[in-house]
Every structure is written in structure tokens, then in C-alpha cells.
């Protein structure tokens, strides 16, 4: 017969969960189940939305806001139309005219390419008066050899000004960054 000491088992403590032979607690025996740690989908989506909102607000604030966006967009568009007009003059072998009406915030290029400048922008034109088709308008004529009558177009938004310069000898269109402002 086996000795009583060998067959006796150790009492289980009521404060400690029962352990298996490997030392791990057995589920359901004196242990409270907890939810797994982590975040819900809603919490993750809210955080992503907040990050996107803060990023957008920061980008707009740093770039000069909506007015700055309008100024840069209009400058790029007008520069592209001026370059198109020069390319048309060279390609067709005929002089081509780019016109701008500062009061009406309108411009036109060859091929019935017309556009409007945002009303919030100020528009100033400096160029040869003889090139203009009508009083109050400005015009730059590009010639088949690439040259032009030259001129400058200034777009103004608040304290910021962007100047588009067209060289008379080469017809090169150049955008002079900020002249007196942030955007």
C-alpha cells in the first residue's frame, strides 16, 4: 500500500487559481475573463479623421489660405496660355495674340481659348499699347520667330503679387514668385 503522504494532495488556495501541471492557470477556475486590449473601429476612424483635419488646416494655413491657392492657380493657368500662344505662333508661322481685359478679369489665347480670372484677384497689365485690339485691354503679340511685343501681367491677392513677364526678344514667359507677400 502506498504511504498516506504520497497520496495526499495539496489543498487549493481560494485566492489563487488552480494551476495545471505546466504552471498555467486553467480557464474558468477562479479567474475573471477580460476583454482583449485594443481599439474599436470607431475609435480608429475618429483618430484618422482628426489627423486628416489637422493636416488640411495646417497645409492651408501655411500656404497662404484660399486666396493664395487662387493666386497660384491663376498664375499657372495664364502662364500656360502665354506659352501656348507662343508655341502657336512658331508652329503656324503667323503672329498670334494673347489678350487680357483687367477690368473684366478675362483673357483669351488663339484657338478660342478663353478664361476667367478669379474676381478676388487684382489684375494689372503693362505692355505695348499698340498691340491692344481695344482700349482698356492688354495684349502681347508673339511672332513666328519666337519673339514678342513683351509685357507684364500682375495678379494681386491681398499683400501678395505674382508677376508674369514676357521677354520681347525671346518671347520667354517667366513667373516671378512673390512680389511683396506670402502666397
From TrEMBL:
<keyword id="KW-0997">Cell inner membrane</keyword>
<feature type="region of interest" description="Disordered">
    <location>
        <begin position="1"/>
        <end position="32"/>
    </location>
</feature>
<comment type="similarity">
    <text>Belongs to the GSP H family.</text>
</comment>
<feature type="domain" description="General secretion pathway GspH">
    <location>
        <begin position="74"/>
        <end position="169"/>
    </location>
</feature>
<keyword id="KW-0488">Methylation</keyword>
<feature type="transmembrane region" description="Helical">
    <location>
        <begin position="39"/>
        <end position="62"/>
    </location>
</feature>
<keyword id="KW-1003">Cell membrane</keyword>
<feature type="compositionally biased region" description="Basic residues">
    <location>
        <begin position="22"/>
        <end position="32"/>
    </location>
</feature>
<keyword id="KW-1133">Transmembrane helix</keyword>
<dbReference type="InterPro" id="IPR045584">
    <property type="entry name" value="Pilin-like"/>
</dbReference>
<dbReference type="Pfam" id="PF12019">
    <property type="entry name" value="GspH"/>
</dbReference>
<keyword id="KW-0812">Transmembrane</keyword>
<dbReference type="InterPro" id="IPR012902">
    <property type="entry name" value="N_methyl_site"/>
</dbReference>
<keyword id="KW-0472">Membrane</keyword>
<dbReference type="GO" id="GO:0015628">
    <property type="term" value="P:protein secretion by the type II secretion system"/>
</dbReference>
<dbReference type="GO" id="GO:0005886">
    <property type="term" value="C:plasma membrane"/>
</dbReference>
<dbReference type="GO" id="GO:0015627">
    <property type="term" value="C:type II protein secretion system complex"/>
</dbReference>
<dbReference type="Pfam" id="PF07963">
    <property type="entry name" value="N_methyl"/>
</dbReference>
<protein>
    <recommendedName>
        <fullName>Type II secretion system protein H</fullName>
    </recommendedName>
</protein>
<feature type="compositionally biased region" description="Low complexity">
    <location>
        <begin position="1"/>
        <end position="15"/>
    </location>
</feature>
<dbReference type="InterPro" id="IPR022346">
    <property type="entry name" value="T2SS_GspH"/>
</dbReference>
Amino acid at each position: 500500500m502506498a504511504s498516506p503522504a504520497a497520496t495526499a494532495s495539496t489543498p487549493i488556495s481560494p485566492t489563487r487559481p488552480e494551476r495545471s501541471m505546466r504552471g498555467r492557470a486553467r480557464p474558468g477556475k477562479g479567474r475573471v475573463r477580460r476583454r482583449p486590449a485594443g481599439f474599436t473601429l470607431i475609435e480608429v476612424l475618429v483618430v484618422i479623421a482628426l489627423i486628416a483635419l489637422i493636416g488640411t488646416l495646417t497645409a492651408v494655413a501655411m500656404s497662404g489660405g484660399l486666396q493664395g491657392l487662387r493666386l497660384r492657380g491663376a498664375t499657372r493657368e495664364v502662364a500656360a496660355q502665354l506659352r501656348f500662344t507662343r508655341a502657336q505662333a512658331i508652329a503656324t508661322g503667323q503672329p498670334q495674340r494673347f489678350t487680357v481685359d483687367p477690368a473684366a478679369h478675362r483673357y483669351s489665347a488663339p484657338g478660342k481659348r478663353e478664361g476667367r480670372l478669379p474676381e478676388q484677384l487684382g489684375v494689372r497689365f503693362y505692355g505695348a499699347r499698340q498691340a491692344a485690339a481695344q482700349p482698356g485691354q492688354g495684349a502681347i503679340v508673339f511672332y513666328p520667330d519666337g519673339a514678342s511685343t513683351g509685357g507684364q501681367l500682375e495678379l494681386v491677392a491681398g499683400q501678395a503679387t505674382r508677376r508674369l513677364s514676357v521677354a520681347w526678344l525671346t518671347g520667354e514667359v517667366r513667373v516671378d514668385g512673390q512680389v511683396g507677400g506670402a502666397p
